[in-house]
Amino acid sequence: MAAISRKNYKTIEWHFYHYQEVKAAAEQEREDILNAANYEAEASGVYSTDTSDRTGNTVIRLEAARDNAAWCEVVESTVEKYRKGPLGLLINMLYVEKLGIYRICDSLCIDRSTFYNWRTEIVTYAALKACEKKLIKV
């Protein structure tokens, strides 16, 4: 874990643990932004909105949705890389089923040190993918 800061390590793991929620939120936010062009005509015939800088607010929301979508791509590419091996089972048990360390080690017949090494390998690969997408700096 020395190559990855504690903050980045926790950020990456957070995105693995909350993948489903982040993906759904990113898709919903994108749809809301694209369907939100609601301009109302005032009595004078001038179109206005309820916010002072609608374009600026939309850009900020789009940036957040884009970042969430990029994090989802990082998680998906990591899962795809390790899908067929024991690390794929670890990803599923740890981040999807949210099983405890001892239960995972018993199920996979591995030692705790192997568990931590595998988890570090998964997070390191995800960190490289996140760096490619400029989500974190290592």
What is the SS-derived class?
mainly alpha
Residue share in helix: over 70%
* SSE order: HHEEHHHH
Rounded average pLDDT: 84
- In total, the number of strands is 2
Enumerate the spans where pLDDT stays under 50 for 5 or more consecutive residues.
Answer: none
Largest beta sheet: strand ordering: 1-2
Instruction: Please report which band the strand proportion falls in: under 5%, 5-15%, 15-25%, 25-35%, 35-45% or over 45%.
Output: under 5%
Structural features, described:
- This protein is mostly helical and 138 residues long.
- It contains 6 helices and 2 strands; from the N terminus they run H-H-E-E-H-H-H-H.
- It has helices at residues 6-17, 19-34, 54-82, 86-96, 101-108, 112-132, and strands at 40-41, 47-48.
- A two-stranded antiparallel sheet has the order 1-2.
- The longest helix has 29 residues, at 54-82.
- The protein is elongated.
- The protein starts with 5 loop residues before the first helix and ends in a 6-residue tail after the last helix.
List its traits.
138 residues, mainly alpha, two-stranded antiparallel sheet, 6 helices, 70% helix, 3% strand, elongated
